[in-house]
Design a protein that fits this description.
32-stranded mixed beta sheet; 15-stranded parallel beta sheet; 8 helices
């Protein structure tokens, strides 16, 4: 009876246990696993409620009967013994080309998961919220990964309560910060720590805190704006530190403080990345004692001096690129026999490649490009590594001699030898490089023939660049079928013609084709356009290609960049080619209208250059369909009619060239909507009306405004003075009247130094999600020293004002002389009166000054002689008077500079100034008097000399007679 009662009691207790929510859903016989705990299940469901979008990640979570056991939910793991949730892994993942991730906020309901030791929300989007402080209460946590979760604000110091934590990753949250890392001192068990891209710019004692983590193995503080450690923190370091992996790249570290800190764990470090910092000085002594070091990256610093001769012999990876290292490559690098990857790119290294490199038998990648290395490449060059070497880049150096034979380089995939001084022929051993994918030997002095024999075994070749070898004759048969499908073909400035290379028809996957300046003549074959459907860039410019471009049915898939300029192509522009994202058809013989632009539903082009053709008709009025256009050049054609109002729809446009057409009418007011415009060239048309004042009010980015040779009238609007960036203003050869505005000194860019080039950055096309960036350096034809020149890279240095050949009156405002960086000033052929500003000498940078054919009066200011750079000066045909100021510069000009000013005098004019004759005579008379005096004294001296000599002789003779008489007298007395 007692036993039966006991069994009933036991059954009742079991029933209670099975139904009590806190303890689980069910216990199945023979199953050691207990269902998840109800309160933890509810906590997860509340968490799900705060997730606005889970992209199906939480689809297995729910209240349905079939989903009751939360331990079976996706991303959830429970303890087999206690049924408590111990692991929550809801990291993002890729599924069918999309990344699935959580979006929303972290609910505090997770506090119920007190047994949680693994939490991974990496790749989620918590929409810029602060990191919850309550995470620091999950004290059983050993693994915490909240990387790339779009948190912002400070890192909560409560994380320091997670004393059991081994792994902490908060990287990729660039809007997070921490003013100090003191909270780390509580994480004494930490072995992995990553704060990549978290702002630590104020954490000046970060090194001290790191020193207190004795078990830390892997430390990642990349791109944290990390300051250099302060000196006092260095002395407390424990040399038994176990750190093996250290990434401090992309910070603000300096040599003086970081190197001593690194010395303390010489024995443990295996991987060290200090790239993209501010390290300076010589690295010679910093790393010689790091015996365990296998990977060292010091690239993108300002290190100087020579490459250290004593580095760890265990190095596998060494990158010293993009520094200022000098001298030769030390022979001792050849002793690092474990080395697989060596990068010495972009330094100032000289001399030859050490012969000891033949010892680097494990070398996979050798990149030495952009140095000053010289010499011949030996026949046994890198012979020991020939069956392992995969990439060799020696480009942009000064190597000479023949291209070496690469016999036995069975693994070589990429060979870059461009921009050296190699000569001779392309070696036949190239054909043995069966794994070769990239072959680049441009800009050398190669000669001879390239035949099918060189390329017929290169089955994997993707990239071929032999361009800019003018003597290299690419003799490939038109019927040849290559074994490869090239992605990039660069044969510009080689001997490729005269026939169009027929073997190109087999290349169906080409993305970049450049055969410009290669001597091709004749028409393009019908098959050519069929291979361009996947093209990214096509350049056939500067050849002698003739004929009509067929109106092909080709549809470009990638909005390519197409350059067909400087040929003899004719006929109308085909519709299909207007699908390009960058199109240059300039300097051809295309004719007819360009109304086909309106047939393109949405023009993708950012750059459209149809200049220097025979195009005619009115400009199309459909520019609203070309919203991404940044550069439009239609100059030097035969267009007529008005500039259409739809031109104002080009709100992205920065450069507009319509020069030398036959356009008429006034400037459309819609043009003021093009507020990004930097260059406007409408010269040599038949435009008329007042110069609109809205140019100065709305086109504030203008650098160049050229309206010369039109029929504009009225006065110069003072609003033009608001163009702070204006550097070239040309309103010459119009009918403009009135006075020169006194506010020209507000043209700030003519006071300050300008940029070297005018460059536009844009995307092709602008409206596509995968559009690619590009840039364009603008050109401009400028009247300079009486002739028109085209400027490009130096356009930004030119500061010019040309108001010549108008009907301007009044005086030259003195404010013009405030434009201290002005290079050229032309005010000739107007009705300007009164004086040349006396402060004209302030224009010390001016090279060209033309004030001729006005009504200027008064004297030439003396300050003009102080301008040392003046090379062109014309003051002719005015009413100037007085003496030309004395100065080497002004007297060096031809007399024609001053002709037509009858009141001017002095050199270089033959006319002498009043008073100059007396002044000139006075020195001559004095000289004559002086000469006469000299002659007089000469004659007096001669006379005196004669008299003295004569009487001297007489006296001598008399003296002899006297002596004889005296002697006779004495003899008489004696007798």
């Amino acid at each position: 009876m007692v036993g039966r009662s006991f069994r009933l009691l036991l059954g009742f207790i079991v029933l209670l246990l099975c139904t009590k929510p806190d303890l689980g859903f069910s216990i199945q016989a023979g199953d050691a696993k207990i269902g998840c705990i109800e309160r933890e299940r509810e906590a997860l469901l509340k968490f799900k409620e705060d997730i606005s979008n889970h992209f199906g990640i939480l689809s297995s979570w729910g209240r349905e009967k079939s989903k009751k056991d939360c331990c079976k939910w996706k991303g959830v793991r429970c303890s087999n013994q206690t049924s408590h949730i111990t692991k929550l892994d809801l990291s993002s993942y890729k599924y069918k080309d999309e990344y699935r991730h959580l979006r929303g906020k972290i609910s505090p309901s997770l506090l119920e998961l007190q047994q949680l030791n693994h939490l991974d929300f990496s790749g989620s989007d918590f929409e810029g919220r602060s990191m919850p402080e309550f995470i620091g209460s999950l004290t059983k946590m050993r693994y915490l990964n909240l990387s790339s979760t779009n948190f912002s604000g400070p890192i909560p110091s409560q994380l320091g309560n997670l004393s059991n934590l081994n792994y902490l990753d908060l990287s990729g949250n660039s809007n997070m910060s921490s003013e100090n890392l003191d909270w780390l001192s509580g994480l004494s068990s930490l072995t992995y720590f990553s704060l990549n891209h978290v702002n630590l710019s104020k954490a000046i004692r970060w090194a001290e805190t790191i020193n207190k983590l004795p078990f830390l193995i892997d430390l990642n503080l990349k791109s944290c704006d990390l300051p250099s450690p302060i000196t006092p923190s260095l002395s407390i370091f424990n040399s038994s530190f176990s750190l093996t992996f250290l990434d401090l790249s992309f910070n603000q570290l300096s040599t003086t403080s970081i190197f001593p800190w690194l010395f303390n764990f010489n024995s443990s470090l295996v991987h060290l990345d200090l790239s993209h910092n501010h390290l300076q000085g010589s690295p010679s002594d910093a790393f010689e004692n790091m015996a365990s070091l296998e990977s060292l990256d010091l690239s993108w610093n300002q290190l100087k001096g020579e490459i250290p001769k004593s580095l760890s012999s265990s190095l596998v990876f060494l990158d010293l690129s993009n520094n200022q290292l000098q001298g030769s490559i030390p022979e001792t690098l050849g002793n690092m026999v474990s080395l697989r990857f060596l990068y010495l790119v972009r330094n100032q290294l000289e001399g030859e490649i050490p012969t000891s490199f033949n010892n680097l038998c494990n070398l996979r990648i050798l990149k030495l490009h952009r140095n000053n290395l010289t010499g011949l490449l030996a026949k046994n060059f890198l012979a020991c590594a020939n069956d392992r070497l995969e990439l060799l880049d020696l480009s942009f150096n000064k190597f000479v001699g023949s291209v070496p034979d690469f016999v036995g380089f069975l693994s070589l995939k990429r060979l870059f030898l461009g921009h050296n001084q190699f000569n001779g022929t392309l070696p036949g051993s190239i054909a043995q490089l069966a794994q070769l994918e990239f072959l680049k030997i441009p800009s050398n002095s190669l000669e001879g023939n390239v035949s099918e024999a060189h390329l017929s075994s290169l089955f994997k070749l993707l990239y071929l660049d032999l361009s800019s070898n003018p003597m290299l004759d690419v003799k490939l048969s038109s019927n040849w079928v290559p074994p490869f499908q090239l992605r990039h073909i660069f044969l510009a400035s080689c001997k490729l013609g005269p026939r169009f290379p027929g073997w190109l028809r087999t290349q169906k996957r080409v993305g970049w084709l450049d055969i410009s300046s290669s001597g091709i003549s004749g028409g393009t074959p019908e098959w050519f356009w069929n291979i361009t459907s996947n093209i990214n860039r096509l350049n056939i410019s500067n050849n002698q290609i003739t004929g009509v471009v067929p109106n092909s049915a080709v549809e470009f898939s990638r909005y390519p960049q197409i350059d067909m300029s400087s040929n003899y192509l004719e006929g109308s522009i085909p519709l299909f080619i207007l699908q390009a994202g960058w199109l240059d058809l300039s300097r051809n013989m295309f004719s007819g209208s360009i109304s086909s632009l309106c047939e393109v539903s949405r023009g993708a082009s950012a750059y459209l250059d149809l200049s220097n053709n025979l195009l005619s008709g009115e400009l199309p009025d459909c520019w609203g369909q070309w919203e991404g256009l940044v550069v439009l050049n239609l100059e030097n054609n035969n267009f007529s009619g008005k500039i259409p109002n739809s031109i104002g729809s080009l709100q992205a446009i920065e450069s507009l060239h319509l020069r030398n057409d036959k356009l008429t009418g006034e400037l459309p007011s819609s043009l003021k909507n093009c507020t990004k415009l930097r260059v406007v060239d409408l010269a040599r048309n038949e435009l008329f009306g007042n110069i609109p004042s809205w140019i100065g009010r709305t086109l504030s980015n203008l650098v160049v405004l050229n309206l010369r040779f039109n029929e504009f009238y009225g006065s110069i609007p003072e609003e033009l003075c608001q163009l702070k960036k204006l550097q070239i203003l040309d309103l010459s050869n119009n009918n403009i009247s009135g006075m020169i505005p006194r506010c020209f000194n507000n043209l700030t860019s003519m006071v300050e130094k300008g940029s070297l080039i005018i460059t536009y950055n844009y995307t092709i096309p602008c409206f596509m999600p995968f559009s690619r960036p590009s840039f364009y350096i603008d050109k401009q034809i400028v009247q300079w020293k009486g002739r028109e020149f085209e400027y490009e890279k130096t356009l930004g240095l030119l500061k010019s004002i040309d108001l010549s050949s108008n009907e301007l009156s009044g005086e030259i405002p003195q404010e013009v002389t405030d434009l201290l960086d002005l290079i050229s000033l032309n005010l000739s052929r107007n009705y300007l009166i009164r004086l040349i500003p006396p402060t004209i000498g302030r224009l010390t940078e001016i090279d060209v000054l033309d004030l001729s054919r006005n009504r200027l009066s008064g004297e030439i200011p003396p300050s003009l002689s102080q301008i040392q750079r003046l090379s062109v000066l014309d003051l002719s045909n005015n009413d100037l008077s007085g003496k030309i100021p004395h100065g080497t510069q002004l007297q060096s000009f031809n007399s024609s500079t001053y002709e037509g000013n009858p009141k001017l005098c002095g050199p270089p004019l033959l006319k002498k100034c009043l008073g100059d004759e007396k002044k000139e005579d006075s020195p001559n008379n004095e000289g004559q008097v002086q000469e006469e005096e000299n002659d007089l004294w000469f004659y007096i001296g001669v006379a005196l000399g004669f008299i003295v000599g004569f009487w001297g002789v007489c006296f001598t003779l008399l003296n002899i007679s006297w002596r004889n008489a005296k002697f006779k007298s004495l003899r008489k007395q004696k007798n």
